Structure formats: C-alpha cells, structure tokens
Amino acid sequence: xxxxxxxxxxxxxxxxxxTWRFQKGWKPLEVVDAEGCYFIDAAxxxxxxxxxxxxxxxxxxxxxxxxxAIQQQAEKLSYIGPGFATEVRVELSKRLQEVxxxxxxxxxxxxxxxxxxxxAFKIARMYTGKSKIISRYRSYHGSTTGSISATGDPRRWxxxxxxxxxxVVFAPEADCYRCPIKHSYPxxxxxxxxxxxxxxxxxxxxxxxxxxxxxxTNGVLIPPKEYMPRLxxxxxxxxxxxxxxxxxxxxxxxxxxxxxxxxxxxPDILTTAKGITSAYAPLGLCATxxxxxxxxxxxxxxxxHTYEAHPLTMAAAIAAIDEYKRMNLIERSAEMxxxxxxxxxxxxxxHPSVGEIRGLGLFWAVDLTKNRxxxxxxxxxxxxxxxxxxxxxxxxxxxxxxxVLIMSWFTHFVIALPLIITKKQIDxxxxxxxxxxxxxxxLVTT
Length: 446
Ligand SMILES: Cc1ncc(COP(=O)(O)O)c(C=O)c1O
Description:
Helix content: 25-40%
Bound molecules: pyridoxal-5'-phosphate
Distance between the termini: 33 Å
Number of helices: 14
Largest sheet: 7 strands, mixed
Shape: globular
Strand content: 15-25%
C-alpha cells in the first residue's frame, strides 16, 4: 500500500515515536478508526501496526470480548474506592495466580507501569530496610520520579540536575552485540552478571535490583541463558530483592506468559502493565511473593491511588487474559516467532546496514550499523537531543508512507507484534522494511 502523502497530515521523523519529541512543527497523524492489526487515519489510509502501538496491544484493536467486559462492568460497578472488596478484583487475582511465575500472589494495582515500579521500590526499601536500587544502563522503567531515576537510558538525563531520587546505581547491561565491557560471549563467563555480584559486595545496603528480563525499547536485548539464574543466586547471596520489570516483556510477548519464564527464574517482585489489558484500560500491577506480603500484615504501606484497582481496568484484564487463553496466543507467539525469524534473518544477509537481528516470540529488534566490523551505530543518543536526523527515524517515516508503523529507537527498530498477526501481514510489513533499508545501506562505510 503506497500512500499519497499529500492526503496525510505532514509526517515528520519524530512522529514515529509518540512521547519524546521536539514540539515545534509537530503535526500528529489523526487516527479515526482501528481494527485488528490496522489503524486508519482521517484521510482513509490504513496502517499495519508492527509494534502494537507502544508495544502494548497484544490483542490488536476492537477485541469484542474485552470491549464487552468493560461495558458490562461499567453498568454493574464503574467505580469503588480501593479499600473495598469487589468480585472483579477477586476474579482477576485468581487469573493472575494462574499465569504469573509461581508464588507471586499478593497484588498492588496501579494505573501504569511507572507507578507499579514506584510501588516496587517503596516495598523493597521497606521490606529490606535497605536503600539502594541497582538498575542497568540500557533500561527504561517509567517517567515518574523514582522510575525515571532508575532508568538507564537518556530519558533520565533531564532529571539528573535535582529531580533524581538518591541511592540508585547503575550496572552494565547484558548486550552481547555491543558489550559495554567489551567481552565476548561465551568466553566472558557472563562477566556482566558477575560484575553485579562485585557491585553488591562493594555497595552494601542494596535493597533490590530492577531488570527488564528482555530489555524492551532499548533493543530487545536477550541475556545469555546463564544470566537470570545467576542473578537470582547473587540477589539471594546479598539479601537483595530481584524485581522483574515485565511491563513490556510480559503477556506472551516473548512466547511465554512472562519473559522470566524463559529461564524458570522467579523474581521477588514482578511489575507489569501494557498487555495486562492489551492496553484497553490503564492498569499496572506490582506483584510480590508471600514473604514480602506477610511483612505488610503489620507494617503500614502508606501508598495508594484514587484509581487503584479500578473496576473497569480489572474487567478489561480478566477478559484479556481469558482471550490470551481462548486463542492460545502465548503458544502462538512462540510458533509465529519461528516464522518471524525465518523471514527476518535473510534481511541481514541482504542488507549491509543490518548488524544484528535478535528476538524471542513476537518481540524482535533489527539493529543497524554503519560498519559490521566495528558495529558502530548510525546515531548516538546526543544526536536526538540536538534534533539531528536519525537514520532509523527516516526509515520508519518511509515505512509509514508505505502503510506500516514500526518503532524506531536510536540504533534499532523494535518489533512487537499484536499476537493475532498473520503470516501474510508479517510478509507485507517485512517487504516494506526490506525496501526501506536501502536508506541505511547507502550510508554504510565499508
Ligand atoms: C520496561 C518498561 N517499564 C516501565 C514502563 C512505564 O510504563 P508506563 O508507560 O505504563 O508508565 C515502560 C513503558 O514503556 C516499559 O517499557
């Protein structure tokens, strides 16, 4: 589908990512309708959504079961304060116990992922009586004060001059393509996780480490298989809690209910949002194990929200989980992941600008490089702040003209497909990517 750009409000490179842009000249695409994996603009152009909006729409648009559940709940009980028990909350808690990693059985409900992480930090600090939070550089944990302070990527820079919470320290990420400590897997013995042991030894007073089990926006970074089991051991050795931020990696995204399930590692706290309702209602979750929950039996947790455990969001989550099960979407994600891999990897052979293609289930990154030997990216973080044209954004804007929405981020594309996507739709979007990668190929230096 090739669109006549004159019929669409002016597109800019920044349009490809919805929350972090220069305001001057911003003219967003007006969306008027959506169905399944597509959305439609005011001029009638149809776009295939290759990133589930903000990597959150596992069920695609207009899922009738979720819509009906919200409608019915609205008629029955649209709001009640979080201090009351409700049937819908009990029902959701039962569903969560079935799908979350074993033992995560006490739930604090929020309206977003960032709030779930704020709760996690407060719980970890109160429970352990310690104050430090370790996070990793290639990470995003949300935009409120605690979560942005624990965010490793440059979205944190804006709060460095005064707005940051104290006692957050950063560890290197597990990135086997551009290893921050210049090692090479497997000879490295997974030095990046051993360094966290070293950090905990020397920092002392560490309450928790927060990790995205598969790093999302910052590159779909999949740790080596030894990483999470070893991190679990390190946390236990130092009496620090392991917080898995599964806001993006949960809900079938990696071919399992949660990314941690790929290594059978159970965190002490799991936070999530996005796919919990397939984004039909704003719900976040901070789930803890019983030991932590028991502590709060007689310790006051001075924390809460007006919209905490909002009945409409609970109803949406129940329906979304039931839909994931009814349509076998978690298994489907794993199966379709194999198809994605078979179609994506040939792009690396064909395009010199493709450095690495990595993924799990229906969660993939296409990482670009100027030079395959040095793995130098086309752009660095600073370029974005200086409003310089970003190669990945140019490609994403070109793909949008062809009717495909893809998420671009500094060095790579994040592909987070609705779990209902078909092979035909994948082929269509990858044909557009194949075509548009020539923009980067022309800039390759060797
Ligand atoms: C891993 C991760 N954690 C936390 C958040 C913040 O979630 P929210 O935008 O719902 O506050 C995000 C959002 O993209 C995320 O990807």
